[in-house]
Design a protein that fits this description.
This protein is elongated. It is an all-alpha fold. The model has no long low-confidence stretch (mean pLDDT 92). Helix 1 (3-30) runs antiparallel to helix 2. It has helices at 3-30, 33-58, 63-87. It has one domain (3-87).
């Protein structure tokens, strides 16, 4: 696997986890439930960023099935962010 590809995925994971942490910290300070949904959503988005390559290489699946699994995880995260916007 290309090092630049791994680096890009790692940056995406780190940034999404930083956003999730800040959102969770905001939830703890304010007690507003939508911030908790934002935090969870970004955890899913970050996990989706790295799961495609892991599933493809570790489990030996096709790239199409790994991409579908990634899309499901990222979509779940986006759905949580959407719920937080609707609740606000």
């Amino acid at each position: 696997m290309d090092v630049s590809f791994l680096f890009a995925k790692l940056i995406t994971l780190i940034l999404s986890l930083v956003v999730a942490y800040i959102a969770y910290h905001g939830y703890r300070r304010s007690g507003q439930e939508p911030m908790l949904y934002v935090s969870g959503g970004f955890v899913f988005i970050g996990a989706g960023a790295i799961c495609e390559g892991l599933i493809y290489h570790v489990f030996g699946t096709t790239i199409a099935s790994a991409a579908i699994f990634q899309a499901i995880i990222v979509s779940s995260g986006m759905l949580l962010v959407l719920v937080s916007l609707i609740k606000y």
